[in-house]
Write a structure and sequence with these properties.
By secondary structure, the protein is mainly α. It is 67% helix and 3% strand.
Length: 240
């Protein structure tokens, strides 16, 4: 539909139910298709509004968007994680400083959805991203949320891959990830700026190292080494 121009740039895709009926498939299949389109950078999803075809205004802007919205190599996935450690660490710091009540409610809802995903052993990618986006919104600084939205595709790609791998392992791997989210939330809730920054950096650094070194590699990091800037992440990974 997109390639044939049935839905133009910035155009809204039909609702999931309409697409399911049109293509003769279940809503689950449609959701999977929309997820793949979003990860590939063809569409963007707006909470409460639906999915829209990405608008490409000019080549320069398109090149910038491509660098932010596509993951086409392991090296690029690594760079995304490295950038997130810095970006989201500061995001959590300012979220704790601002303590936006509405954003905290959104984060709590996402946390509950993540808890349900752990209990039912589902990926929970959408809830995971919404939690991190909620932290960005809690800063009260639109730049943080805008960058997170722009990077939605590569971030969701990493989340989906990491959580999918965790589903193949004992439940405590997902529980560990969930406990990190809770630590971030609690630090923001009580206004502990340094604690929130450290908890977020620890969380993403742990995911980064588990992604490339295996499920138990993150446990080898000391909290002190991560808190001091995560120097240990500059290591040679398997396959390099």
């Amino acid at each position: 539909m997109i390639e044939q121009g049935q839905v133009g740039e910035s155009g809204r895709l039909p609702a999931e139910g309409e697409l399911a009926e049109e293509f003769g498939v279940s809503r689950y299949v449609i959701r999977e298709a929309l997820t793949r389109l979003r990860l590939a950078g063809f569409i963007v999803s707006r909470k409460g509004s639906g999915s829209f075809v990405r608008r490409r205004e000019n080549q320069d802007v398109d090149a910038l968007q491509t660098s932010l919205t596509h993951v086409d190599s392991i090296a690029q996935l690594r760079r995304c994680y490295e950038f997130r450690i810095g970006l989201e660490g500061e995001t959590a710091y300012f979220a704790a400083q601002n303590q936006n009540a509405e954003a905290l409610r959104e984060m709590r809802v996402a946390l509950n959805r993540l808890e349900e995903a752990v209990a039912s052993r589902n990926v929970g990618m959408d809830a995971d991203f919404e939690f991190h986006l909620g932290v960005a919104r809690a800063t009260g600084n639109g730049f943080f949320a805008t960058v997170m939205e722009a990077m939605r595709a590569p971030i969701e790609f990493g989340i989906n891959l990491g959580r999918s791998l965790s589903l193949r392992r004992p439940k405590h791997h997902l529980e560990r990830i969930q406990s990190q989210h809770v630590a971030i939330f609690k630090a923001i809730e009580i206004g502990d700026r340094e604690g929130a920054r450290r908890a977020m950096r620890d969380h993403i650094t742990d995911a980064y190292i588990r992604m490339f070194n295996g499920p138990d590699a993150g446990n080898l990091l000391t909290q002190n080494s991560i808190a001091q800037g995560g120097d240990d992440i500059n290591m040679t990974f398997e396959g390099e």
